[in-house]
Specification:
The chain has helices at about 1-20, 30-50, 50-55, 75-90, 175-190, 220-225, 230-240; strands at about 60-65, 70-75, 95-105, 110-120, 125-140, 140-150, 160-170, 195-205, 210-215, 245-255. The protein is of the alpha+beta class. A hairpin with a 2-residue loop joins β5 and β6.
């Protein structure tokens, strides 16, 4: 009986201690409101070129993973990265608009995701993508712990890369639609499997029936290997009945001016 009583008392003590150590209830509404206002402040500071204000929003060990640049770890690195990006954007007349999306809170961590658009001086969109932000409650403040965003734009073509521009006139409106269907079903997948290929953009003009594509490659040799391949010859056999006249194809070396 003595052992049973001791076990019971111990079990009760453990349960009482566990109850005392439960995490305090999180004010979800307040956390979400802090994230919403924080994202709005981030956007305003970025467009104003205020890298100091943005860096102060991150935890001391915060990390930013942005497209086409090294990972920035810590406030100093984040400040330097944002300072350059925002200054370049301001000089080019670009404006950032963040579209806030879903969010959630769990204990002292919270997450937020959404999309963004970058517009030129004329108001036209020049880039966009999605983002994911992780925040941590540090002394009552929801600081950014991890921040990552991507870009919907094709990867930039580095010096030494080449562009191939293909142009032809479709035999008619139906033929032009058939060309685009062929591009979706067969041509794009074939590009994706080709050595040295980076991206493709198609263009059409319903009025003139001008049709074509722009592709980026590592080298002119890669383009040559592609156009002489058996697969490409098969595609050309399918394209010829849909074309009016001959196809023009030019390859250009990309030269990036020194900054």
């Amino acid at each position: 009986m003595t052992i049973s009583k001791s076990v019971s008392i111990l079990a009760a003590s453990v349960l009482l201690l566990a109850g005392c150590q439960q995490a305090p209830k999180v004010d979800t509404a307040a956390a979400e409101a802090a994230m919403k206002s924080g994202v709005a402040a981030w956007q305003e500071a970025y467009n104003a070129g205020d890298a100091d204000k943005i860096a102060a929003m991150y935890a001391e060990d915060g990390v930013v993973m942005a497209p086409n640049v090294p990972v920035a770890t810590g406030r100093d690195a984040i400040r330097a990265m944002i300072a350059k990006q925002s200054a370049d954007a301001k000089a080019a007349g670009f404006t950032l608009a963040i579209n806030q999306g879903a969010m959630g809170v769990a204990g002292d961590l919270a997450w937020h995701s959404g999309s963004y658009t970058i517009s030129g001086a004329d108001g036209a969109a020049v880039d966009g993508g999605g983002y994911m932000e992780l925040r941590k409650n540090v002394g009552g403040q929801w600081m950014i712990l991890r921040d990552a965003w991507n870009s919907d734009a094709p990867a930039p073509v580095a010096p030494g890369k080449v562009l191939r521009i293909v142009r032809f006139t479709s035999a008619g409106a139906d033929a032009q639609q058939a060309v685009m269907k062929l591009a979706e079903d067969e041509i794009t997948p074939m590009y994706a499997k080709s050595k040295g290929f980076h991206w493709v953009k198609y263009f059409t003009d319903p009025k003139t029936l001008a049709t074509g594509s722009v592709t980026a490659w590592d080298s002119a040799a890669d383009v040559q290997a592609f156009v002489t391949s058996e697969g490409y010859q098969g595609i050309m056999a399918k394209l010829k009945p849909l074309m009016k006249g001959a196809m023009a194809s030019d390859v250009y070396e990309v030269v990036v001016p020194a900054k």
